[in-house]
Amino acid sequence: MVFLTLSCWIRNRGPDRYWKVQEVLSNARHFRGRKNRCYSLAVRAVRRAFVYATKARKIKRRNMRTLWISRIAAASREHGMKYPALMHNLVKSSVEVNRRVLSDLAITEPKSFLSLAKLARARQQEGFGAALGDGKEPPGVFSRIVTLQ
Amino acid sequence: MALTLRSGYLEMLRTCWRLQARHVKIPVLNQMGLLYPAIARHRSSQSKLPSSYVPPTSLSRPPWPEVSYISSDEEERQHKVVLENVNTLLAKEDYGRLFAVVHFASRQWKVTNEDLILIENHIDAECGDRIRLEKVLLVGGEEFTLIGRPLLGRNLVRVEATVIEKTESWPKVHMRFWKRHRYQKKRIIVQPQTVLRINTIEVAPRLT
């Protein structure tokens, strides 16, 4: 008599548990503590790490832009202009250099940045001159304000 | 407050007299100046300034800074001088390394010779093809800068590049997880990349 049910009691749990576990643990090898060795802890830590990485990819763009803006503001203040004035006047002069390149120019090409700042300053003065005008009333207008002459 | 000042002055005078045993006699004019400082100021101001003088206040001049006007002739002369200088520089071709700001693949790049650029998308050119980058915003060297409004002319600047490599990026993981809601999604993103090497930047020596 042969005992035949022994072979029915053996469970085949799946041949590649080792590789599935390694897939997760390999992403956790540089973590601190038991998270880099124990699978249950590692799963949670790796999931958080991936979610942080996806969110950070969006936030990185925002942070880079604020960094460029603060660098351009510092460089323009060295030349006696403020950041909003510089950008507005460059846009009005139809110069479409973006903030990343402007910050690179401010760091590596100071003379070119100075020329851009001077261009913006000239456009600003032109704008002020146009706003102030001649100091006279426009023709054909009768005004209550009487200037002493 | 004026009264207390005057009394303070009197006290000072009295103490001085007591200390110096009443030998010091301050002449009458000066005494009046010490007792009534307003009179002293009035006396000093009367002699120097004309009667039409108005002291400056916060409303003496407008709050905006003064604008210095340049006449159009002067401006034209200045422009001509600058143009001549730049034209002589370009004609000599004595400038060293040039840099250019180029608009390519919806991004702006600050580029020089022998530069490598990594672009995160696919380009329709094969490896080894020579490409001309046409949208140039700015060209500069050590002595001069040419600023385009917004672009510089095609016959003014020539930027050439070669396609070196066409690969894919490393596999980035895009994961979403919402805690206590049994929701998670994992996706692997692989983006095509192209590497360009900038060969030359040339400027044509003719400006009006």
TrEMBL record, chain A:
Keyword set includes Ribonucleoprotein: yes
Pfam families tied to this protein: Ribosomal_L20 (PF00453)
GO molecular function list: rRNA binding; structural constituent of ribosome
GO biological process: one example: translation
GO CC list: ribonucleoprotein complex; ribosome
Keywords, alphabetical: Ribonucleoprotein, Ribosomal protein
Highest taxon in the source lineage: Eukaryota
InterPro entries: Ribosomal_bL20, Ribosomal_protein_bL20_C
Family: Belongs to the bacterial ribosomal protein bL20 family.
Alphabetical list of NCBIfam families matching this protein: rplT_bact (TIGR01032)
Record protein name field: Large ribosomal subunit protein bL20m
From TrEMBL, chain B:
One Gene Ontology MF term: structural constituent of ribosome
InterPro entries in alphabetical order: bL21-like, bL21-like_sf
Gene Ontology CC annotations of this record: mitochondrial large ribosomal subunit
Family: Belongs to the bacterial ribosomal protein bL21 family.
Name of the protein in question: Large ribosomal subunit protein bL21m
Annotated source species: Oncorhynchus kisutch
